[in-house]
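A quick word before the example. In earlier lectures we treated sequence and structure as two separate objects. From today on, think of them as two lines of the same record. Here is Magnesium transporter MgtE written that way.
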Amino acid sequence: MEEAVNEKDAHHMDRKLLIDSLQNEDMEKFRDEFLDLHPYDQASFFKELDEETRERIYHYLSPEEMATLFENLEMGDDNYQDVLAEMTPNYAAEMISKMYVDDAVDVLNELEKDQVVSYLTIMDEEAAQEIKELLHYEEYTAGSIMTTDFISISANQTVRSAMYILKNEAPKAETIYYIYVLDDEKRLAGVISLRDLIVNDDDTMISEITNDRIVSVSVGDDQEEVARKIKDYNFLALPVVDFQNHLLGIITVDDVMDVMAEEASDDYSKLAAVSDMDTIDRSPLSAAKKRLPWLIILLYLGMGTASLAARFEATLEKAAILGAFITLIAGMAGNTGTQALAVVVRGIATGDLEKESRLKLILREAGTGLITGTICGILVTITIFIWKGNIFLGILVGISIFCTLIIATLAGAIIPLAMHKFKIDPAVASGPFITTINDIISILIYFSIANLFMNFLPK
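And the structure line, produced from the sequence above:
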């Protein structure tokens, strides 16, 4: 068995043979080798090729074979347009029509509207109609990621007739592990598994084995909520219904994995104050375009911090030693604020926040800030007294740390909660944003307290 696995791994990695067969125009050898690969490996190999070599592949593979590859191809927006432009319009349109509907919609959503219309006009009318039905759903909703390639049966039929339907529709269905039972008005009445069909007698009525305790999602539900529900219930697929409970489509676990990766990338991008990190930018200009908006906002917030510090120049002139601890206090505020932000954003993303009241969370973070502020305040007071020999300077910095950590922790918790309440992605409250806000707060606290201790500080 181990030898067989190793042979298969080596087979997967035989790129030289594939490239040689392309260069030698040996179509038969290429097809034998290439079509034996897993679609993911096909897509990985395809992405490495230059345009001239890829154009040869379009002549060697049918649109249906290319569709399987394309379903596993992960590329940026511009890359999809470039690759499709390499194909003839008829070939590209037929290829898209052979893809699972949800995957076809994902590809078309990356194109310009005139390109979408062009491909839909060329392709088979039935396939175009199925794709159009999904294209109009709002992005990032259940409707936008569902597929209509599912199997449904009626409750008033037998297992034998259901198996007949299953065998006929299985080749074009995205999954056959769940079969959905509809009533006479096409509303979702229940679900049965493939196992249910196999273990029951042929003459058993579907209504007798149907599970009517259905977990479904609405077509307008957010894709994150869909992903969370599939994760919680360990489903392989989830039905999507409208407000009258008509079955519109299903969302499979592989689509949810894509959603989770997309959402994680999106949240990380925002926490890093970058608009898009899905792909590695090919040029410094495109990278700068994505980073500049947040950097400009943070630049002006930083200027506000500098302006605030300038208002306390007189205080600094009287006690220059105060300048040594500005970065310490601002840095501690930024760190604790980012920690609280990460906890809250993760709680919102995983759904844990729904199980815990917002007030309870805020009180918990306030308690955390109180404890961390007290311990850090005491430690810094003792350290500065030993270091500088002035207990009042130590107390000043210690109290500043104490107050700053409490307020910064609360800010890190409250800001994303407020954004979530107003339907704004809480990840927008990015680390750099929270850090800059807390810089302003910490400097204000520090110098306000410093004015009270001015007579006890070294000049």
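Notice the following. Confidence is low (pLDDT under 50) at residues 1-11. We will return to this example when we discuss secondary structure assignment.
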